[in-house]
Design brief:
alpha+beta, 3-stranded antiparallel beta sheet, 12% strand, globular
Length: 141
């Protein structure tokens, strides 16, 4: 029988857990969790997004998106606006406070990444990033 560390899927899973733990520890004081952060980062790359698009693109259950956006609205980091072509739909957009929050997390995010990838030299980090991006673009887009 193969050991767990021989299973690439398991190693990716464990690395994801560790990354989430480290980042959630940093975010804890702000009232934001990694799932909120993912929504904010996605919104930062757009002028806004329909809630159902957030669900699809981030891989979250639609009911979870509603709660996450509610939380972000309470914090003043995001807002819902009527969609211009369908008033029944809502577009979620990042606020100025949300953008400021993200700018403040950049350095901490880099520290978390550096802690996780400390065993790798710069060339190995670049290779890992390139490979993970290829997998993500093919399987998660």
């Amino acid at each position: 029988m193969r050991g767990l560390h021989a299973d690439t899927g398991y190693l990716l899973y464990r690395l994801g857990l560790r990354s989430g733990q480290l980042f959630n520890t940093f975010l804890q004081e702000s009232g934001v969790r990694l799932r909120h952060y993912a929504v904010l980062r996605f919104l930062a790359g757009s002028e806004g997004s329909l809630q159902r698009e957030l669900s699809t693109r981030l891989g979250y259950d639609p009911s979870a998106i509603v709660g996450l956006v509610d939380d972000l609205e309470k914090l003043g980091f995001a807002e819902r606006r009527p969609a211009p072509d369908d008033r029944r739909s809502r577009i979620v957009a990042l606020t100025q406070d949300g953008r400021a929050f993200l700018r403040g997390t950049d350095e901490a995010g880099l520290r978390v990444t550096n802690e996780l990838l400390d065993p790798l030299d710069p060339a190995e980090r670049e290779t890992l990033h390139t490979l993970l991006r290829r997998i993500a673009e093919d399987g998660l887009a």
